[in-house]
Specification:
Distance between the termini: 46 Å
Radius of gyration: 21 Å
Strand content: under 5%
CATH topology: Amino acid/polyamine transporter I
Mean pLDDT: 89
CATH architecture: Up-down Bundle
Low-confidence stretches: 1-7
Structural class: mainly alpha
Shape: globular
CATH superfamily: Amino acid/polyamine transporter I
Length: 415
């Protein structure tokens, strides 16, 4: 089994590709899932995650289908320009930049919350806006130094995340109360809350920016890339379901009302979980995991944004050039984090709105267009014909509509 998992062209590890996808998929955004799923609760929450995983898997494979018609190394921008033209290239580019900016703000908000919570445990009290400024400043300096610095720091963080996740979540899974999962308290209404949670589920499976990178890495080895995408996203799905079991099996449904009332930020959720953890060291592991998750997510997103803006504005790699890039990368979201420190959930929702375009609708349109451009191609084609493309695009439109309706307060929101 292990040999099969590692079989890939040119001796390149299939496991490595799967871990790239899983590492991009799973991050600080997972802390939003129990909060936004509190209304529909566990059963509907799991069904929703499985459904969204399947759709996002299909959209990633549609992107791969389109990508395989071009030379390895073709960027998302190139693919959009060559298949859909200038209009969709601009729309897609703007949506990608927006996602990166809004996620940077989301992680500053989440980071300030969890850092503040950690300091409170040590008897140190800071305004959350100041904690956000410290969080962004320290990590921004790492991104500014070099990509190599980010690579090394992130590698250490990912190792720490794996260890602390299994220690903390393993304990929470052992301590769950099945009645909380299967017989939740509070109002006996669940299904109406599904629609408002859709965008957050979509945002939790955002790995599509890595698909062109995998094509560049593996070449046109479609079967290897498909396996990497499937394995990576499926691992993310399993982690998310375990996370729902761990949180909802320990915090009652009505208990989430207070978490939501306090903004639903990371520190609030972690604080609620710590109250049910029997041992202090396990509580510390959960706090450490949360800190590592939001820090690694911040580094990953801001490195992409940093490189994107450097290319867009033509800033060179000198200290002066990197300083200019750092200003346009970090100042706007950090100011937002200082002014609006509790916008974590709101920001994740906005990120999902933009992701509906570039990670769902655009891949579907690109696959449809390449099928017309290369009708006799023997390259990989996603099974299901045009019906799968319609399903994926319809899901993107539905999810974007749900977010807009939720913003207009036209959808029921629990708590």
């Amino acid at each position: 089994m292990a040999n099969h998992m590692n079989a890939a062209p040119g001796g390149k590890s299939l496991l490595g590709g799967a871990m790239i996808i899983a590492g991009t998929t799973v991050g600080a955004g997972m802390f939003s899932l129990p909060v936004v799923s509190a209304g529909m609760w566990f059963g509907y929450g799991v069904i929703l995650l499985i459904g969204i995983w399947f759709i996002m898997l299909m959209s990633g494979l549609l992107l791969l289908e389109a990508n395989l018609h071009f030379e390895p190394g073709a960027s998302f921008d190139t693919l959009t320009r060559e298949t859909l033209g200038r209009f969709w290239r601009i729309v897609s580019g703007v949506s990608i930049a927006f996602v990166l900016y809004i996620l940077t703000y989301a992680y500053i908000s989440g980071g300030s919350s969890i850092v503040n919570h950690s300091l409170d445990n040590l008897g140190i009290h800071l305004p959350q806006s100041v904690a956000g400024l410290v969080f962004a400043g320290v990590l921004a300096s790492i991104v500014m130094i070099s990509t190599k610095a980010v690579d090394r720091i992130t590698t250490v963080m990912l190792g720490g995340m794996i260890i602390t996740f299994f220690l903390a979540i393993g304990n929470l899974l052992i301590e769950i109360e099945p009645a909380k999962l299967l017989q939740p308290d509070g109002e006996a209404v669940y299904a109406p809350y599904i629609l408002a949670a859709l965008p957050f589920g979509l945002a939790s499976f955002g790995y599509h920016g890595n698909v062109p990178s995998l094509v560049k890495y593996y070449g046109h080895a479609a079967s290897t890339i498909i396996k990497a995408i499937f394995a990576g996203t499926f691992l993310g799905l399993v982690i998310y379901i375990c996370w729902l079991v761990a949180t909802m099996g320990n915090i009652s449904r009505t208990g989430f009302i207070e978490i939501i009332a306090q903004g639903g930020n990371m520190g609030v959720l972690v604080g609620a979980l710590q109250q049910v953890m029997a041992q202090q060291w396990l509580s510390s592991m959960l706090t450490l995991f949360a800190n590592l998750a939001v820090a690694s997510s911040f580094l990953g997103v801001t490195l992409g944004l940093f490189d994107y803006l450097a290319d867009l504005f033509g800033f060179d790699d000198s200290m002066a050039g990197r300083s200019k890039t750092a200003m346009v990368t970090f100042v706007p979201p950090t100011l937002m984090g200082v002014l609006f420190p509790n916008g974590f959930l709101v920001a994740i929702g906005f990120a999902a709105l933009a992701a509906c375009i570039w990670a769902v609708i655009v891949p579907g349109l690109m696959a449809y267009q390449t099928r017309k451009m290369f009708p006799d191609s023997k390259s990989f084609r996603v099974p299901g014909g045009t019906l799968v493309i319609i399903l994926v695009i319809a899901f993107g439109v539905l999810t974007a509509t749900c977010h807009l309706l939720a913003m207009a307060k036209l959808l029921p929101v629990y708590g």
